Amino acid sequence: xxxxxxxxxxxxTPVYSWVPLDHVTMPPGVEKWLRKENxxxxxxxxxxQRQMEERGIESTYIPHSVDxxxxxxTDKIKDKNTREFMGLSEDDFVVGMVAANKASGLLHRKAFSxxxxxxxxxxxxxxxxxxxxxxxxxxxxxxxxxxxxVRACGIPQxxxxxxxxxxxxxxxxxxxxxxxxxxxxxxxxxxxxEGFGVPTVEAQSCGTRVIGSSWAATQDLVSEDx
Length: 226
Description:
Blueprint: E1 15-19, H1 28-34, E2 39-43, H2 46-54, E3 60-61, E4 76-77, E5 80-81, H3 82-85, E6 93-98, H4 112-125, E7 129-134, H5 146-152, E8 160-161, H6 165-170, H7 174-183, E9 186-189, H8 198-205, E10 209-212
Parallel strand pairs: 1-2, 2-3, 6-7, 6-9, 7-8, 9-10
Antiparallel strand pairs: 4-5
């Protein structure tokens, strides 16, 4: 996020700037940075490159990537079938979210309120559906209390799963996350804007369809069957 770079010493150093763009229009501070003579702009999404082109800013496009050997169809966690590990049956319809719970004020960029409310409406028609939210459920002082939000939206407690709090805090292995993606029927990933949105690529690499926002970087990442 280049709007953070305000140290005058940075004007004296050649910088290759791999910049996320996720606003409707390019923020003035970002544009000012990208126009500096010592800065070489690099777009991490086609959306970002298009937005720079609209401002007459030349850039190179280098996307994020994932290790497809790790993020591939993975059926087991700790020698157990993924659904068995999660305490679910093969008949359950699993909607997953993988998003950082970091926000301030009334707006959460990951749209947890909107997505959880949408699931609550879906769950009323499909009571065999389960919501797995791969994040810190209470935000640890930086985000929202999603447990309260789930309760406010009227979703039964046994229809929502969060990861083990200790494992999440100290790092869940990528192979385990790949298995969790594989165990989902769909990844629910609409947000207010992504500079890239790595989970959308991780999930699809594991064979899981994605529901995403039709704008910012996400519009270039979701496959035609998403």
